[in-house]
Amino acid sequence: MKGAVFLGDRRVELRDFPDPRPGPGEVVVAIRASGLCGSDLHSYRDRPGQVTTSGKRVVGHEPAGVVHTVGPGVPDEVAAIGNRVMVHHYAGCTRCDHCRSGWPQMCSTAPTRVFGTHEHGAHAPFMRVPAVTLVPLDKKLNFSAGAAIGCGTGTAWGGLDRLGDVGGSTVAVFGQGPVGLSATLLATARGARVIAIDPEPARLAKAQEFGAVATIDPSSVRATTALRDLTDGAGVPLVLETSGATRAAGDGLASLAPWGRMCVVGLGGEVHFDVLDMHRSQMTLMTSWSMSIVQQRQCAEFVARNELPVDALFSHHWRLDQVVEAYEEFDKQSAGKGVIVFDEP
Question: Which residues form the Enoyl reductase (ER) domain (predicted)?
């Protein structure tokens, strides 16, 4: 089969790999959709000698598809051939407390394996994974939506969960890329009043479609001032930072109301604050690492139950043989979410 690999220096290409076969406790998923995630851009842009996958492993960690083959020891109730599934893209020991509570990325006894980095990922027709990583995909959701929930949209869900009960509160979402837009959509559906911040007009327009009550362009006004104005000087009780920009993180902290909570999910930036300045605010600063496998299922069920338009996140659909063009477009970070789709046999 053909699979996409990163070579560094903004290069990606297709290479030949053997068709995978499942071992004990494993399944092979026939991929129907494989999302492009913002975190992949770090490896895509990296210097050739620093790319973790170094052209040896198939990339892509937002898989959705159908169970194709099943290895020994996998019961039908877990993975029957033909089942529609997503994949939680981490694997741990399965035995420690973190793994058993649905957080294999925080495994305490073995190095975490990340599909698309340490193991072959989903930018290929087939992908071999442990059966315990599978998450059911409701028939109400198409495979592209399942791919988004597998990381980007699921990461937004995980960040909102970290903030707590957002219903009835004002949430400032910094960044309106695929994760930020997902947060705007999900937080609105969970009863929050969302203020969306992003310098890209098209993304702000999409945020309004997804329910944002106000938008801020930080390239034309100071976000902190605008947020204070929108809250009658009180500041916002909740901030979700998805952009990975250091300035956005600083503005988020400066915009918090007393007792406010801020969760950082965007990668690449830094968070700085003077303890003396923030000491009396009683603020809480936290991070969120994607989501647990339980939260991935809960997010998918919530999206299906509330018929949320996750499909509207996508601005581009690509075939696997267009992967070079796909990442060149995605690298601009000015459009919506992209996904590689595979035809059913």
Answer: 8-340
Residue 61 in contact with residue 151, Cβ under 8 Å?
Answer: yes
3-state secondary structure string across 42-93: HHHHCCHHHCCCCCCCCCCCCEEEEEEEECCCCCCCCCCCCCEEEECCEECC
Cα atoms in the Cβ-side hemisphere of radius 13 Å centred on 137: 28
DSSP line for 10-40:
TEEEEEE-PPP---TTEEEEEEEEEE--TTH
- Confidence label for 42 from pLDDT (cuts 50, 70 and 90): confident
Nearby residues of 87 by Cβ (< 8 Å), 6 or more positions away: 29, 63, 64, 115, 122, 127, 129, 133, 134, 135, 150
In this predicted model, what pLDDT tens digit does every residue of 273-319 receive, in sequence order?
Answer: 888 888 889 999 999 999 999 999 999 999 999 999 999 999 999 99
CB–CB of 195/173 below 8 Å? yes
Residue 278 burial by Cβ neighbours in a 10 Å radius (0-12, 13-18, 19+): middle
Written as one letter, the residue type at 170 is: T
Q: How far apart are CA 159 and CA 291, in angstroms?
A: 8
5 near 13, Cβ under 8 Å? yes
* Structural domains in the chain, sorted by start: 2-151+291-341 (3.90.180.10), 156-287 (3.40.50.720)
pLDDT tens digit sequence for 217-275: 999 999 999 999 999 999 999 999 999 999 999 999 999 999 999 999 998 889 988 88
* Overall average pLDDT of the 140-168 stretch: 97
**Counting every residue, how long is the chain?**
345
- Point out which residues pair with 105 in neighbouring strands: none
What is the structure's pLDDT at 51? Answer: 58
